[in-house]
Amino acid sequence: MPADAKRRVLSRFPNITSFLRYAAICVVALGVFAVVLLAAGKEPLKAYADTFHYTLANAYGFSELVVRMIPLLLTAVAVALPSRLGLINVGGEGQLYMGAWLASAGALLLPGLPVWVLLPLVTVLGFAGGAAWAAIPGLLRANKLVNETISTLLLNYVAPLIVSFFIFGPWRSAESSAYPQSAAFPDAARLPSFFNTRIHAGLFLALAALIFYWVLMDRTRWGVQMRAIGGNPEAALRLGIPVGAYVVIALAIGGGIAGLAGMGEVSGIHGRLRQGLSPGYGFTGFLISWLAGGRPLGIVLMSFLFAIITSAGDILQITQGLPYAVVNILLALLLFIVLGRNTARRTRRVHRDGSAG
Amino acid sequence: MSTPLALGVIAGAILSGTSLLYATLGETIVERAGIVNLGLEGILLIGASTGFAVTAASGSAYLGVAAAAAAGGIANLIFGWLVVMRRANQLASGLAMMFFGIGVSALVGRPFVGAVISGLPKWRPPWLAALAWVKSTTLFNYDFLIWIAVPVAVLVWWLLFETRWGLGVRAVGESSAAAFASGRNPAVVQFQALFAGGLLGGLAGAHLSLSLTLTWAEGMTAGRGFIAIALVIFSKWHPLRAIAGALVFGGAEALQLQLQARGADISPFLLDMLPYVLTILVLLAWGGSRRHAAPAGLGRTFYGTE
Questions:
Q1: Which of residues 211-240 of A touch B (CB under 8 A)?
Q2: Segment B147-161, tens digit of pLDDT
Q3: Whether B254 contacts B13, CB under 8 Å
């Protein structure tokens, strides 16, 4: 194996030192967060012990972690794929909602179809909903009209309103007037669950998305061209690569994958369309992809870590009477440390190269 | 309530545009120094919760405003540590700040959910109050943050364009290397700009919770930070144009509230979309012309002369 290829393969598997480094980062972040909780008059050690007890120490808790990983994996790939072109998709949250919305449209409006038609249809619609939503910023960006960072961010606030409009309006279920939600999906529109847990077939969608992403990027000429655009759009354009088309398609595929996360939530877990489908999975997916550097295996590991952290948010809410949102401090601390040290490494490299990057 | 719709919208535009104006001015200073702070949303949340908590605990809204501004400034210094000292990616750091703001504000605001405050005292100049048509409306009955909003915008313009300090900020924003070569320390300038921007962001948050809503609720800023970032582009990084921008977007929010209050037969969810959709449309219309106005070094990391 040529030395270069060997290094590439090795770099995909985190070695022991980098594992220890990440462990140290987690310990520091947990330590600072514990101080914050103490200052708020709470019991951090009990909260940590509870989190461990309810997530990692038993099979059911672990299964719930996997359930939580499904949307995180999908929203992370939704960010990672366009990022290879230098595109910043911060709209996973909105794309997730639109995927859930269009998938629900299929499930609610075509209830009579057999499962082998309806379930694939609902899946495709979930993808299409997110893809169409992300194609808007894609088109705006490709025509150099609006930067995709700001447009994807703003669209995050519109998509949940569309969902609310439908579940308070045309799709409101008659049987539960107190709680706004759609009618229950027909069984044929439900993703199957396994082993008496809530782990649903969305897991396969997530793994398929990861494999698709890896193959596309590392094994096809499209991936090469996309990385060329990410490296130098001007040069790519002059080489005859249709940059604009790639921008729209990459964002749309990313959005579609985030849409699958929404589809998984409504079809695999809730069985209906409702408000508050996502406690910020789209944003978390961005951070996962960023921390993993867009590497598929890194995305899996980071999704697992973030599934534990977001579970800790639920634990804090239930046992310590703190709002779920407080766990965002822990998330932020973790990021502060990683952001703060990552560039120290980059600076060293700049030294070695003798150029100011 | 027999106020005509137009008057109601204008009054509301000033009321909700004020917070947007402070946020936009803060981000303008920061971006003029070459830094994009996507964490503005978090700064607003920290300002809103800190302002509300201090007001509810101390009984003084002015103390609340001061605390909110200080909290915003300090939060931006953390951001500065990341992007200036550690040269971290600005977008990722900004999102980290947003998460930080969501978390900290939830923690700070928690004990004060449902607390009742009287908010910032309102004041109307006597000669205006004497006019009959003014008396029947809420026009010109404003708290001090509204009264000083336009003067602050002028002050920011003066600081940025008429002082040596502003020249330094803009020089760093155009090219840190050139500013460094001319004897300025880009890091110091950027920290000053970030602190000033944080103060203004804190004020923006405080005005939301202490004047507009008089409550604290998690996530109550509802994307205003991102709208303000878009407003900076809309106003071409110019503090005075930001006044117009803030009024237009305050107006969109006010129109939506007025229509809802008047029982217009439009779903509130569709009306709620108005500010976000309008923001995108405005950016779209501005698309071609804005590139020349942006600071040339916006978002670039300065690695110094190592």
A1: none
A2: 888 999 999 999 999
A3: yes
| Residue contacts between A and B (CB atoms, under 8 Å) | 150
Provide CB contacts within 8 A for A4, sequence distance 6+. Answer: none
Structure tokens at A200: 């649903």
Q: In DSSP terms, which residues pair with B123 in a beta bridge?
A: B142
Point out which residues pair with B142 in neighbouring strands: B123
To the question of domain B18-113+139-292 being in CATH 3.40.50, the answer is no
Task: Express the helix, strand and coil content of chain A in percent, nearest 5 each.
Answer: 75, 0, 25
- Cβ distance A246 to A152 under 8 Å? no
Interior CA angle at A248 toward A246 and A254, to 5°? 95
B-chain residues near A324 (CB < 8 A): 106
Looking up tokens 């609610």 gives: A108
HSE-CB at A204 with a 13 A cutoff on CA atoms is: 8
| Residue extents of the structural domains in chain A | 69-296
In Å, what is the CA distance from A41 to each residue of A316, B22, B61? 13, 34, 26
Nearest chain A CA: its distance from B291 CA (Å): 10
DSSP per-residue codes, A124-145 = HHHHHHHHHHHHHHHHHHHTTS
Q: What is the pLDDT of residues A218-254, one digit of tens each?
A: 888 888 888 888 888 788 888 888 888 888 999 999 9
Question: Which residue, A210, A250, A212, is CA-closest to A230?
Answer: A250
Task: Please give the ipTM for the structure prediction.
Answer: 0.87
SS3 A160: helix
Nearby residues of B294 by Cβ (< 8 Å), 6 or more positions away: B31, B233, B237
Best residue in A33, A75, A310, A343 for a mutation probing chain B (most B CBs within 10 Å): A343
Q: Is B277 on the interface with A (CB under 8 A)?
A: yes
Token representation of residue B78 = 């953390």
At residue A102, the 3 state secondary structure works out as helix
